[in-house]
Design goal:
Largest sheet: 5 strands, mixed
Radius of gyration: 20 Å
CATH topology of the largest domain: GTP Cyclohydrolase I, domain 2
Strand order of the largest sheet: 5-2-3-6-7
Shape: elongated
Order of helices and strands: HHHHEEEEHEHEHEHH
Bound molecules: zinc ion
Number of strands: 7
Number of helices: 9
CATH architecture of the largest domain: 2-Layer Sandwich
Helix content: 25-40%
Low-confidence stretches: none
CATH superfamily of the largest domain: GTP cyclohydrolase I, C-terminal domain/NADPH-dependent 7-cyano-7-deazaguanine reductase, N-terminal domain
Distance between the termini: 56 Å
Structural class: alpha+beta
Number of domains: 2
């Protein structure tokens, strides 16, 4: 028996956002027909779909077979991968950098793919903790390494613009798998190398 076709990401989101943004702007007390706002629902629609584009991607599609033999690499560290995400509590941006370290077993991944993996999970409604663990789990799932360590550092506009209003604060989250979880000395060395 054939399954009904699953609607694509674009089909799902194509028609819905613009009228919702119109309603949102109107509910805020604004006149959506004035010159500065008239194109805003369409712009926010495109912008939000870009910023949540991770929902339309898969890990397999992002990796796309860019796997290579490890050939003796002891540890690979990818530093300063910029990301921009939206906090799922307020739909406000949080943004910063991710650092990924792994000890390969048999395979390594093309370096540019780490930025794509980070975007795969950053371009969703997120919390920083889950973003960090999803990146680590993706590295483990893709490479089955001896260990993986992911650090994210981010500033959260929902903290900076409202609430506690701690402008300068940034949040650092560390997730470890495999040897980085078991070997405190190794973990300490890598974290020292990744100090901001
Ligand atoms: Zn928030």
């Amino acid at each position: 028996m054939s399954q009904p076709p699953i609607p694509s990401f674009d089909e799902l989101t194509d028609t819905f956002l613009e009228p919702l943004i119109t309603d949102l702007i109107t509910a805020l007390g604004e006149d959506v027909s004035r010159e500065g706002l008239i194109q805003t629902p369409a712009r926010v629609d495109r912008s939000l779909r870009f910023l949540t584009g991770g929902y339309g991607l898969t890990l397999e599609g992002v990796v796309n077979g860019a796997l290579f033999q490890a050939e003796g690499a002891e540890m690979i560290v990818v530093k300063d991968v910029e990301f921009y995400s939206l906090c799922e509590h307020h739909l406000l941006p949080f943004f910063g950098r991710a650092h990924i370290a792994y000890v390969p077993e048999a395979t390594i991944l093309g370096l540019s793919k780490f930025a794509r993996i980070v975007d795969l999970f950053a371009r969703r409604l997120q919390v920083q903790e889950r973003l960090t663990t999803q990146i680590a789990d993706a590295v483990v799932q893709t490479l089955a390494p001896k260990g993986a360590l992911v650090v994210t550092e981010a500033s959260h506009l929902c903290m900076m613009m409202r609430g506690v209003q701690k402008q300068g604060s940034s949040t650092r989250i560390v997730t470890t798998r495999g040897v980085f979880k078991d070997d405190a000395q190794l973990r300490g060395e890598v974290l020292a190398a990744l100090k901001p």
